Amino acid sequence: MKKKNMFVVLLVMLCLTGSVFAQGAVEQPKQEIRVLLANHPYGELLKTKIPEFEAQTGIKVNYESLQESQLTNKLTTEFATNSSTVDVFMTRPLQEGLMFIKNGWYKGLDKYDFSDYPANSVDIGRKAGVAYIVPLVTEWQVLYYRKDLLKKAGLSVPTNFVELEAAAKALTKDGVAGFASRGKGAAAVTQLSSYIYNYGGRYLDGGKAVFNSPEALEATRFYGRMLGSYGPQGVTSMSWENIMPVFQAGKAAMWTDASVFYGQIIDPTKTQIPAEDIGIAQLPKGPKGDSPFIVVSWGMAMSAKTKNQDAAQKFLDWATSKTLAKEGMLTNITMARDSAWADKDVRAIMNPGLVETQAHAAKNGYPFDRPFMSSVGQARDLIGEVIIESINTKGTSTKLPALAAEKAKAVDELLKTDGEYGL
Amino acid sequence: MIRQSFFERNLRYLFPLPAVIFVVVLMVFPVCYTFFLSFTDWSLTSGKPLNVVALKSYVDVLKEPRFLDALGRTFYFTFGAVIVEMVLGTALALILNRSFRGKGLVKTLLLLPLVATPVAIGIVWNLFYDPTIGILNYVLSVLHLPQSGWVSETKSVMPSLILVDIWQWTPMITIIVLAGLAGLSSEPYESAKVDGANSRQVLFRITLPMLMPTILTAIILRAIDALKTYDIIYAMTGGGPGYSSENLNILAFKYSFEYFRMGQSAVMLVFLFLVVMGFSLGVMRLRRAFEL
Fold first, then answer.
1. Over the stretch B123-173, which tens digit does the pLDDT of each residue have?
2. Quick check: ipTM above 0.85?
3. Which has the closest alpha carbon to A131: A152, A117, A150?
4. DSSP 8-state code for residue B116
């Protein structure tokens, strides 16, 4: 009797553990991969095309789609706890690239053909000669503006910062903000970057924080003065997702941000302003430079721990293929492949404003929009404090140099902790 | 002697076993592991394995002004919200305890904020609060009153968040107090009537003292929740503008999932744990001291 009962208990336990480990133990009849995508127009495009890939290759693709910061969180948690089953994923080279490379979470892509990509876009995801990230999407900073409002005020499109400020001043009236750009601390760091470059400054130079240099400070003061004086109310808590509806509602006359939002602000279902009244132009020149950021905002990579390397490689090749890059371009996604920009069909329908500003940024731009370091999240918050102080005082704060120096020191400390100082 | 089977002899262990396993795996282990992490310098950005560094992370965290600010804000939010919720919630319960037409409807309406999901609440309130296109500033402008930056300005962000918490959680207090009111015996009221007590005396000398145990329970429940608030703040401001609405939970989240400094984040969570624990024990002792 007793033995029989023990046997039953054992059997039940066996069944329970059996079902837990079954996934790993049983041979899959069909190849399956797990893919993490971002909530980005290109991720959306891939989702619609995945059934075609499955039909062609017989590989089953289990995908999840996540908002960008949640994607980073999920990947980091899974990789750090060594429990990841992810095979291929979308990744932000400038945000998490260094950290992921350092921890050995990306698989080296020695077989991938990178000849169709601008060299500097691949270099960002390269370490010790090995490339880890396939560039997918590029973004650069532009100026969106209201053609009708500029015309009414008798102004032409600003081409330098002096004209930008004059236009912002003239256009701030009747409940409309003359100028908008991100003011929410950490989120503003990427948008301030081009202003700093155009004033002749940098965030980091030779692995040291230099955003307290006179040039960078002057840029920060200008940015603060513009937003503090002519920006929408509450701008220090506004990122692009808060500014876009303000612009779409006709409450802002000019807006500097990444090129990626153009499609959405001319979409008649989302905006109250007729598309013909919305213009796009290159970021105005600064006193010492004309180099807006142009960055690889998204790339695709393979997990170092993938157990389905062949299938994962196939998916990566397909998802970053020339064909899909062209499809992306046709839906106004600005892809990283050179061939996609040269394509005749693409050039025929692509918005000329996008093509022109891309050409300008590709020629003159700078490939970073934030301090490129592992602790970029914390560094952005620290720089964000300086930006907010500048906006709150309309750029006049007497504390600004000391505050910037203090935060630069803190960023240097982060670089030292992470072993990246002076590199 | 009847031989009992294995199951029968061990029923008292076997039945609670699933619950025990659940608590150990999902509560005891994470808490212990967090304590362990707080003594390490585990940081994903350095790419190095974790080292046990004794109290170094504690020292780093205590030197960080953001931490002390967040600690203060955690208390500010909790006391600000819970005190108002208690007063309003109890008052509403006393009003609803009478019978009037449409009482059922009012009670149902009161329940709505409670069942709404926090993120949805955050999004809707953010729309109300939007300084440029939000309805609150529109109403203020129509009434020729000065407008506010609400959650987008450092000085008004905490009161604005507290207001949302009050809107959401006052009904819960009302419901708890209503349940308490329903359980009160009628004898003291009858004798008060005989003795000629007026309604104010009845309220302050009989109803509220008899409700005290219920109210204290509600305070504990609500305060623990408010100390740990995360969802509403994350959905509405993410801790901003700047750091001006960061409480301990938000700060710890940023340290772990944005800065990837797991050691320091664990220290903050240990403090939060101690605060919640200390508060609960304090209120329970208070309750015993007053023999409630």
1. 999 999 988 778 888 898 889 888 888 888 888 899 999 999 999 999 999
2. no
3. A117
4. S
3-class DSSP assignment, residue B3: coil
Using DSSP's 3-state secondary structure scheme, residue B40 falls into: strand
- Rounded-to-integer distance, Cα A307 and Cα A57, Å: 18
Q: What type of residue is B46?
A: S
Amino acid (one-letter) located at B126:
N
* A contacts of B242 (beta carbons < 8 Å): 185, 236, 384-385, 388
Q: What angle do CA A385, B121, A189 make, to 5 degrees?
A: 20
Cα(A231)–Cα(A64) distance, rounded to whole angstroms? 37
| CB within 8 Å: A185 and B241 | yes
Quote the tokens at residue B261: 């400094």
Residue type for position A296: V
Tokens of B131: 């300084």
Contacts of A359 by beta carbon, 8 Å cutoff, 6+ apart: none
Question: How remote is the C-alpha of A363 from its chain's centroid?
Answer: 20
Q: Print the SS3 string covering chain A.
A: CHHHHHHHHHHHHHHHHHHHHHHHHCCCCCCEEEEEEECCHHHHHHHHHHHHHHHHHCCEEEEEEECHHHHHHHHHHHHHCCCCCCCEEEECHHHHHHHHHHCCCECCCCCCCCCCCCHHHHHCCEECCEECCEEEEEEEEEEEEEHHHHHHCCCCCCCEHHHHHHHHHHHCECCEECCECCCCHHHHHHHHHHHHHHCCCCCEECCEECCCCHHHHHHHHHHHHHHHHHCCCCHHHCCHHHHHHHHHCCCECEEEEEHHHHHHHCCCCCCCCCHHHEEEEECCECCCCCCCEEEEEEEEEEECCCCCHHHHHHHHHHHCCHHHHHHHHHCCCCECCHHHHHCHHHHHHCCHHHHHHHHHHHHHCECCCCCCCCCHHHHHHHHHHHHHHHHHCCCCCCCHHHHHHHHHHHHHHHHHHCCCCCC
* pLDDT value of position A264: 82
Which domains, from first to last, does chain B contain?
Answer: 65-291 (1.10.3720.10)
**What would you report as the CA-atom Rg of chain A, rounded to the nearest whole angstrom?**
24
Please give, rounded to a whole number of angstroms, the shortest distance from the CA of A20 to a CA of chain B. Answer: 16
CA B266 – CA B204 distance, rounded (Å) = 45
B2 touching chain A per CB within 8 A: no
Predicted confidence (pLDDT) per residue in A42-67, tens digit: 998 999 999 999 999 999 999 999 98
Rounded Cα distance between A211 and A205, Å, is 9
Confidence of residue B287 (pLDDT cuts 50, 70, 90): confident
Please enumerate in sequence order all residues whose Cβ is within 8 A of that of A422, keeping only pairs 6 or more positions apart, or say none.
A206, A207, A208, A415
Backbone dihedral angles phi then psi of residue B23, each to the nearest 5 degrees:
-65, -40
Residue appearing with tokens 């609500």: B222
**Are β-strands A32-38 and A88-91 bridged in parallel, bridged antiparallel, or unpaired?**
parallel
CB B57 within 8 A of CB B267: yes
Average confidence (pLDDT) over A234-244 = 89
Cβ(A300)–Cβ(A90) below 8 Å: yes
Chain A contact set for B258 (CB, 8 A): 69, 377-378, 381
Residue type, B269: L
Peptide bond just before B241 cis, omega within 30 deg = yes
User: Does B280 touch chain A if contact means CB atoms closer than 8 Å?
Assistant: no
Closest CA to B151 of B168, B169, B173, B132: B132
Q: Which of A73, A236, A249 sits opposite B241 (nearest CB)?
A: A236
Whether the CB-CB separation of B116 and B138 falls below 8 Å is answered with no
- The answer to whether the Cβ–Cβ distance between A233 and B152 falls below 8 Å is yes
A149 beta partners = none
